[in-house]
């Protein structure tokens, strides 16, 4: 009897274990989609562009050196009234099942972004394969199709190059931001914070940049580069913010990790370089007589990277003057960013959310009119505290010599 029971239990266990393969999919039946692009056709339908990895060519290109192994990716397009319909239609062109678990990048054409993001991410959020951590960028002055078709020389898969460029640019320079699908969905579904998304542009000949011959040259015919921040209001792209002003956005959002601040000194522009190694930003909201205001407190720590003027870094008074100049430079960037956002009447900084957290009852009264009646006239007080940790190996610039106790130009 015990032997019969043991046999039955063994058979049942085997059945349970073997049943785990019922939904298997062979690797040769899957099309690994590394990036998705979204454009609009002339008749208003959605066009989805898929960047599908050619595994053999990616490995082959590495082994044989350069691009002799063939193109690392293939581009497929499909149109539909919605994203799911377009995705299903790819079965007419692709011999494998679209697989989104490795999709790390979503590229949205500028035209689509201006029409609005509402509804674009619903299908992505519902798909169990699609990652909410996929990065999102806007194709600036170009279509998503153009961006995904450009071949890149260092990272064989262009989607990976865009992702890495954004990551390193945010870390080292601070004028672009890494935004994921989940971040945008949260901003679109909440009040008091509008999305801000990095742009990607194309430099050079777009048509030639899609050919493999482009990446076989020391200077490709076309390059991808990160280009400014896209500001959104009510889910629609309303403008771009560039340069130091875009860095001002990241100062407020506490996204600056490292960057470089260049300031003038006694009439000479861009005379001293301050390398920021650490920064921390805190934002506080206040309401007085029914009028909201915001305080932004930025603390930085860094080193002197370059000095092009006669400056004695051993002098505490001159160091204090330099510290003040650095703080004023950072403050100007933040205020410039705030003014540009006010012009578009879109709160990309999340000041509204700060007011809500501090004054939830008052926020309910002003939430509906925040962007139109309150944010454009919001008082924003910026305080910057910069600390110079190190001045480098030389306290007196070598391009100057000291004569009579004063630093003067070498003759």
From TrEMBL:
GO CC aspect terms: membrane
Keyword Signal part of the UniProt annotation: yes
Residue intervals of the Spore germination GerAC-like C-terminal domain: 227-392
UniProt key word Signal: yes
Family stated for the protein in its record: Belongs to the GerABKC lipoprotein family.
Descriptive protein name: Spore germination protein KC
GO BP terms: spore germination
Alphabetical UniProt keywords: Germination, Lipoprotein, Membrane, Palmitate, Signal
PANTHER family xref list: SPORE GERMINATION PROTEIN B3 (PTHR35789)
NCBIfam families named in the record: spore_ger_x_C
Compartment(s): Membrane
InterPro entries hit by this protein: GerAC_N, Spore_GerAC-like, Spore_GerAC-like_C, Spore_GerAC_C_sf
Pfam families in UniProt: Spore_GerAC, Spore_GerAC_N
Domain Spore germination protein N-terminal: 24-199
Membrane topology of this protein: Lipid-anchor
């Amino acid at each position: 009897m015990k032997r019969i029971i043991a046999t039955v239990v063994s058979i049942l266990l085997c059945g349970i274990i073997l049943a785990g393969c019922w939904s298997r999919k062979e690797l040769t039946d899957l099309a690994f989609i590394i990036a998705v692009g979204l454009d609009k056709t002339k008749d208003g339908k959605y066009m989805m562009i898929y960047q599908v990895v050619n595994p053999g060519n990616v490995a082959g290109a590495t082994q044989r050196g350069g691009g002799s192994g063939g193109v690392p990716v293939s581009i497929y397009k499909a149109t539909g009234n919605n994203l799911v319909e377009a995705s299903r239609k790819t079965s007419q062109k692709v011999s494998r099942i679209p697989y989104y678990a490795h999709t790390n990048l979503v590229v949205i054409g500028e035209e689509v972004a201006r029409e609005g993001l509402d509804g674009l991410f619903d299908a992505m959020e519902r798909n169990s394969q699609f990652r909410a951590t996929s990065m999102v960028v806007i194709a600036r002055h170009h279509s998503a199709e153009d961006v995904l078709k450009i071949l890149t020389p260092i990272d064989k898969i262009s989607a990976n190059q865009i992702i890495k460029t954004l990551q390193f640019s945010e870390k080292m320079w601070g004028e672009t931001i890494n935004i994921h699908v989940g971040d945008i969905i949260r901003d679109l579904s909440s009040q008091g914070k509008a999305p801000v998304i990095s742009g990607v542009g194309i430099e050079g000949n777009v048509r030639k940049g899609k050919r493999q011959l482009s990446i076989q040259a020391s200077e490709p015919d076309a390059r991808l580069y990160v280009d400014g921040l896209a500001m959104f209001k009510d889910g629609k792209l309303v403008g771009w913010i560039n340069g130091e002003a875009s860095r001002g956005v990241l100062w407020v959002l506490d996204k600056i990790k490292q960057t470089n601040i260049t300031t003038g000194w006694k009439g000479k522009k861009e005379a001293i370089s301050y390398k920021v190694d650490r920064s921390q930003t805190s934002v506080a909201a206040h309401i007085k007589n029914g009028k909201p205001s915001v305080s932004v407190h930025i603390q930085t720590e860094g080193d002197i990277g370059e000095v092009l003027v006669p400056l004695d870094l051993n002098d505490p008074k001159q160091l204090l003057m330099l510290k003040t100049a650095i703080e004023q430079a950072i403050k100007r960037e933040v205020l410039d960013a705030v003014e540009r956002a006010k012009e578009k009447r879109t709160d990309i900084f999340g000041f509204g959310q700060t007011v809500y957290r501090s004054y939830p009852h008052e926020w309910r009264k002003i939430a509906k009119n925040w962007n139109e009646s309150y944010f454009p006239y919001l008082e924003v007080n910026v305080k910057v505290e910069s600390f110079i940790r190190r001045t480098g190996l030389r306290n007196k610039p070598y391009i100057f010599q000291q004569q009579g106790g004063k630093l003067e130009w070498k003759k």
